[in-house]
Design a protein that fits this description.
Blueprint: E1 3-6, H1 22-49, E2 56-59, H2 73-76
Protein backbone atom coordinates (compact mmCIF):
# COMPACT_ATOMS: atom_id res chain seq x y z
CA UNK A 1 0.00 0.00 0.00
CA UNK A 2 1.51 3.29 -1.07
CA UNK A 3 -1.16 5.84 -0.12
CA UNK A 4 -4.30 6.19 1.98
CA UNK A 5 -6.35 9.29 1.18
CA UNK A 6 -9.09 9.91 3.77
CA UNK A 7 -11.73 12.16 2.25
CA UNK A 8 -15.14 10.79 3.27
CA UNK A 9 -17.48 13.31 4.80
CA UNK A 10 -21.18 13.46 5.51
CA UNK A 11 -23.42 15.89 7.31
CA UNK A 12 -26.94 15.95 8.64
CA UNK A 13 -29.75 18.31 7.78
CA UNK A 14 -29.23 21.85 9.07
CA UNK A 15 -30.45 21.86 12.65
CA UNK A 16 -29.74 24.03 15.66
CA UNK A 17 -27.59 22.58 18.42
CA UNK A 18 -30.53 22.50 20.81
CA UNK A 19 -32.49 20.29 18.39
CA UNK A 20 -29.63 17.98 17.40
CA UNK A 21 -30.13 14.38 18.53
CA UNK A 22 -27.36 12.10 19.74
CA UNK A 23 -28.15 9.77 16.82
CA UNK A 24 -27.62 12.60 14.31
CA UNK A 25 -24.36 13.58 16.02
CA UNK A 26 -23.06 10.00 16.05
CA UNK A 27 -24.00 9.29 12.43
CA UNK A 28 -21.82 12.18 11.24
CA UNK A 29 -18.94 11.64 13.68
CA UNK A 30 -18.86 7.89 12.93
CA UNK A 31 -18.22 8.51 9.22
CA UNK A 32 -16.11 11.66 9.41
CA UNK A 33 -13.88 10.84 12.39
CA UNK A 34 -14.21 7.19 13.34
CA UNK A 35 -14.11 6.08 9.70
CA UNK A 36 -10.90 8.00 9.06
CA UNK A 37 -9.37 6.62 12.27
CA UNK A 38 -10.20 3.00 11.39
CA UNK A 39 -8.90 3.32 7.83
CA UNK A 40 -5.73 5.01 9.08
CA UNK A 41 -5.17 2.32 11.69
CA UNK A 42 -5.44 -0.48 9.14
CA UNK A 43 -3.29 1.33 6.57
CA UNK A 44 -0.63 1.90 9.23
CA UNK A 45 -0.53 -1.81 10.03
CA UNK A 46 -0.16 -2.70 6.34
CA UNK A 47 2.48 -0.05 5.72
CA UNK A 48 4.42 -1.12 8.79
CA UNK A 49 4.50 -4.80 7.77
CA UNK A 50 5.13 -4.46 4.02
CA UNK A 51 8.50 -4.48 2.28
CA UNK A 52 9.67 -1.88 1.62
CA UNK A 53 8.13 -0.45 4.75
CA UNK A 54 6.24 2.84 4.64
CA UNK A 55 3.69 4.82 2.72
CA UNK A 56 1.73 8.05 2.99
CA UNK A 57 -1.48 8.84 4.85
CA UNK A 58 -3.30 11.98 3.75
CA UNK A 59 -6.29 13.34 5.68
CA UNK A 60 -8.36 15.73 3.57
CA UNK A 61 -10.21 18.44 5.46
CA UNK A 62 -13.04 20.77 4.60
CA UNK A 63 -13.32 24.48 3.94
CA UNK A 64 -15.63 24.43 6.95
CA UNK A 65 -12.52 24.42 9.13
CA UNK A 66 -12.07 28.05 8.07
CA UNK A 67 -15.54 29.26 7.05
CA UNK A 68 -18.70 29.36 9.12
CA UNK A 69 -21.26 26.64 8.50
CA UNK A 70 -24.29 27.45 10.68
CA UNK A 71 -26.37 24.61 12.13
CA UNK A 72 -23.80 21.90 11.40
CA UNK A 73 -22.17 21.17 14.77
CA UNK A 74 -21.31 17.50 14.15
CA UNK A 75 -19.79 18.21 10.73
CA UNK A 76 -17.59 21.05 11.94
CA UNK A 77 -16.55 19.31 15.17
Amino acid sequence: MDVLFNSAGVTTRAVGLEELTVEQWKSVVDVNLTGAFLCTQQAFLLMKDQQPQGGRIINNGSISAYALRPHSAPYTA
